[in-house]
Write a structure and sequence with these properties.
The protein is mainly alpha-helical and about 300 residues long. The protein contains 14 helices and no strands. Helix content is about 80%, strand content about 0%. It starts with a helix and ends with a helix.
């Protein structure tokens, strides 16, 4: 009962704020939609479609031949773990959550292995991240260093959290009986439903930021929504070292908005976010240490 009262109070404050900050909230909604249309949708939607098609065409089998033994030895994963990791490098998060769900639904990854592999496959879309780095920083050496640190931090995090036993599951060559066109049409339908959820989540967090962070403090913005935090960071007059630290923290933690998007994508699966969230704090710590020692 007490929890319900707290929720009711939060909703009441939110409702009052909608009227009090009516113009500001309208502006934030438009900004959220603009971000979605110009940055998020163009970078994520094609990746959703592409990953479905690549799975159908046998990319996991190819990655198995190239990297399967290495991932089995270093990270104790099956070949599909290698596929999940490299797909994440390419498409970023939360697009890789969509891939993870498909692999679990198709019984190509066990839930336990999915929990582990996802914990160290947390990447910002590389094109988006590089665009934001060039917006915030001008020196190319800084941009390169900040671009590489999250990747190295993920690898170290994966090694820290790796299971004691080696997963012996192998790639199963069981192509679906559906045609490539059927796979494409199904992928479009699933992807659009996912994109609408992402749009709604981003919009809600833009509204929350407008209400609780009217001064657009970059740290608060980045904690809530990473793209908005990076945008505010680029416009701020903060010290260069603080900007570098915030950038690394934003992309290592990902922001509450990304976590909610992942949760929505993984609905109806047994995948838990406990290890994933633990890994985010480990990755933040590792990334900070890498930043300090790379000076």
């Amino acid at each position: 009962m007490q929890k319900n009262n707290i929720y009711l109070l939060i909703i009441l404050i939110f409702t009052i704020s909608l009227f009090t900050f009516h113009n500001e909230i309208q502006f934030s909604i438009l900004n959220a939609c603009e971000l979605f249309i110009t940055k998020v949708f163009p970078s994520l939607f094609p990746m959703f479609i592409l990953t479905d098609l690549l799975i159908y065409l046998g990319l996991p089998e190819l990655l198995t031949k190239l990297f399967g033994k290495f991932f089995k030895k270093v990270f104790h994963t099956s070949p599909y773990g290698a596929f999940m990791f490299f797909t994440s490098l390419f498409c970023g998060t939360p697009a890789n959550a969509y891939v993870l769900k498909n692999l679990v639904d198709d019984e190509k990854l066990t839930v336990d292995e999915a929990n582990y592999v996802f914990s160290f496959s947390f990447f910002t879309n590389p094109l988006f991240y590089l665009t934001m780095l060039n917006f915030i920083f001008k020196e190319q050496t800084i941009i390169l260093k900040l671009f590489l640190i999250p990747y190295l931090a993920n690898i170290i995090t994966g090694f820290i959290l790796r299971p004691k036993t080696i997963n012996e599951n192998q790639i199963v060559n069981n192509k679906p009986s559906k045609s490539l066109l059927d796979i494409l049409l199904e992928s479009i339908k699933k992807s659009m439903n996912t994109m609408l959820t992402i749009l709604g989540t981003i919009t809600v967090f833009f509204i929350i930021n407008t209400i609780i962070n009217p001064s657009n403090n970059p740290f608060v913005s980045g904690f809530l929504e990473v793209s908005q935090g990076l945008s505010h960071l680029g416009l701020s007059t903060l010290n260069l070292n603080i900007k570098k630290l915030y950038t690394i923290l934003f992309v290592s933690f990902g922001g509450l908005s990304i976590i909610i998007q992942i949760k929505s994508i993984l609905t109806d699966t047994d995948i838990s976010l406990k290890l994933f969230l633990k890994a985010r704090f480990i990755q933040c710590l590792v990334a900070i240490l890498l930043l300090i020692f790379s000076k």
